[in-house]
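Bench notes, afternoon.
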Amino acid sequence: MMDIFYENSMGERLNLLSPPYMLQTGEFFDYKWAYDIKEKKIGAFSKEIEDKPALLSILNYGKESYYDAINHFSEVTEQDVLQQKYGKLYIGDMYLQCYITASSKTDWENDIELLDNEITITTDYPFWIKEHAYSFKTKDVTQTNNKRYAYRYAYRYANGLMNTAVINEHYTDCNFKMVVYGPITDPLVYIGGHPYLVNIILTEGEYLEIDSAAETVVKVTAFGERVNAFHNRSFIHSVFEPVHPGRQLIGWSGRFDFDLTLYEERSEPKWGSRAAG
């Protein structure tokens, strides 16, 4: 049995397969592509906002704990709606960015600690996502047999750097988020031979975020201020190029740390998906 739980934007989790919450049914594995029609042929495909209904039983032993469970579910899920910050519905190790937008309670009586809660899960990005996270550290480079070569020959890549790779396990391209940590000037990373370059100076405590799906480049200062760095990106090679399937070699100077997260996206969660951490 795959784990199924809801995690709100504050990191609070509701296990939906263990009392007091018992998920009965849900349209989580159903999906639909919208499409344009041009000259009696299918044009571009797209995804629209989706509502996914689900039936959740809430039960507990003793009125106080029963009432607490009902109230807690509402409080955890409604925080996301009021703050307009996505919650995440997990099935195994994949999640759907979503809100719980409706709740209709049936089959409840005052003297029985049980009710059925028909909820509506709403998403404007109807893809199930699995994250694959990688970290690349300067100390890992200096501990290889390359010694100083990684610094002396900045972008020619000595053996240790070229032996570094990420694997896109998906059947298609993956969006990604890259976080580059200062200090560094004009950070450049190669993924599968494609250069990702931003012409910018990062001082100690600053970092750069590249989000390929949102097509944003943001510098975050040591004080937490977020500065738009979109126009600092390379105009020769796109820094939003998705990561292609398979094993992709990583190349970089070894002079800075960076994190890379690949986002595997599917219209339905994988059957038999492993439990999330």
